[in-house]
Design goal:
2 strands, two-stranded antiparallel ribbon, 67% helix, 5 helices
Length: 112
């Protein structure tokens, strides 16, 4: 599997901040503008805008233009690349656990 290490670094760095994780969680429910995203936070809209720029640079969100609105959206491609990388290691771990389970089952049967 070909992995863009720099893109992974940007994505994990972006997700390392709790505000950015909260923004991703909010956008998972649908598009939102900066003003809408800023509502629950006790930080300035400019700070939220900077967080959005980091998420956008990491490829986790996109912005579109709808007249005067500039809604933010989750970027399924960016999220898929990140989850695919994580899944690769999760599946490898699961395969190891299944092999250990098989060995333990064999030992258990031999003891009976």
């Amino acid at each position: 599997m070909s992995v863009d290490e720099a893109a992974l670094d940007r994505a994990f760095m972006a997700l390392g901040d709790p505000v950015r994780r909260a923004l991703i969680a909010r956008l998972s429910r649908g598009e939102a503008t900066v003003n809408e995203l800023a509502e629950p936070f006790a930080i300035t809209k400019q700070a939220v805008s900077r967080h959005i720029q980091v998420l956008e640079a990491a490829g986790l969100i996109t912005r579109s233009r709808d007249g005067q609105r500039r809604p933010c959206h989750l970027n399924p491609t960016g999220l898929e690349e990140l989850t695919s990388w994580i899944d690769e290691y999760r599946l490898a771990s699961e395969r190891r656990f299944r092999r250990i389970d098989a060995v333990l089952e064999t030992v258990k049967e031999q003891e009976s």
